[in-house]
Design brief:
By secondary structure, the protein is mainly alpha-helical. The chain is built from 12 helices and 2 strands; from the N terminus they run H-H-H-H-H-H-E-E-H-H-H-H-H-H.
């Protein structure tokens, strides 16, 4: 394996694991399409950031996109609670509105904004080793790789430190309130992590693969276990093998890397589904069989 191949596989694996870990909580909260909503809603943030700064610096774009990603999660929650709109409908309302605004901005200033729609959708993983991070004038490695590692460490740290609170808020918000836990604070913290992860990831691997990694590995793990901790581990492993296997499949077929990774993840889900059907284990993850009443949160 060449060094450039290693960079692509390592970066994609970090992104896949990060998305899978967060995806477990989204799937359990029935908010699996939040990642798709955010990946579309950040378009006006990217366009506005470029217009204000007149720069394509990735950190400027990241700030603008992250701001709109977090704003998206806040508006979805407000529409759902205050307007009594179903959560899936509120997701559709907000992200289509923001995406439309982004399209209007790009259409109005098409000569000044250079955005590659295919890159946004499918990513350009073959170019990851070429986008270096500089320390002064010295290149110290691919920027996407450092972003992916930092993002993975941030999400892992948050889940490890707040696992019990995220667990009880996910399965039994009423019980969490009785323990003195602010459900809304932990909800927005989780959504902020999803926003940041989605924005950082889709620049490297594309919006389609981000959504796939958020939904497919966690859904497959959901079918194979009855405990949240096991679900997180299984989802991370499925995501890792999907990234590595998808890359080699793309190399063998000379096809899209993002498409092959998504297909491999889909195969893992199919295997999980067939295994679950054969074993006839249909007990879902619930507050009773995950031990949320015995986790001892003080």
């Amino acid at each position: 394996m060449h060094f450039s191949d290693f960079i692509i596989v390592f970066t994609a694996s970090c992104i896949a694991i990060t998305c899978a870990l967060l995806g477990c909580f989204l799937v359990l909260r029935k908010m699996a399409m939040m990642g798709d909503a955010i990946s579309h809603s950040v378009l006006p943030g990217i366009a506005i950031a470029y217009l204000l700064s007149n720069s394509r610096d990735s950190w400027v774009m990241l700030l603008g996109a992250t701001a709109f990603g977090i704003l998206t999660t806040l508006l979805i929650e407000q529409v759902h609670q205050r307007m009594r709109v179903q959560e899936d409908a509120s997701i559709g309302l907000v992200f289509t509105a923001f995406f439309s605004i982004g399209v209007i901005i790009i259409s109005a200033y098409a000569e000044n904004i250079d955005l590659d729609q295919e890159c946004v959708l499918y990513g350009e993983m073959v170019h990851l080793p070429l986008q270096s991070l500089y320390w002064g004038k010295q290149a110290i490695g691919p920027m996407a790789m450092y972003n992916a590692v930092v993002m993975l460490l941030l999400v892992l740290t948050a889940i490890v430190l707040a696992f019990r609170r995220l667990q009880v808020c996910t399965f039994d918000p009423g019980f969490a309130v009785s323990l003195g836990i602010s459900v809304s604070v932990w909800h927005y913290l989780l959504m902020s992590l999803v926003s940041f992860t989605t924005v950082v990831s889709f620049e490297a691997v594309g919006a389609i693969l981000v959504v796939a990694f958020l939904v497919v590995p966690s859904s497959a793990a959901f079918l194979l276990t009855q405990r949240l901790s096991h679900m997180l581990v299984l989802a991370a492993l499925i995501a890792l093998f999907s990234a590595v296997g998808g890359y080699y499949l793309a190399y063998w077929l000379d096809a899209s890397i993002a498409g092959c990774m998504t297909c491999v993840a889909g195969l893992f889900f199919l295997v999980a589904f067939l295994s679950q059907r054969l074993l006839n284990k249909t007990i879902p993850l619930t507050k009773e069989n995950t031990g949320t009443k015995a986790i001892g949160i003080n």
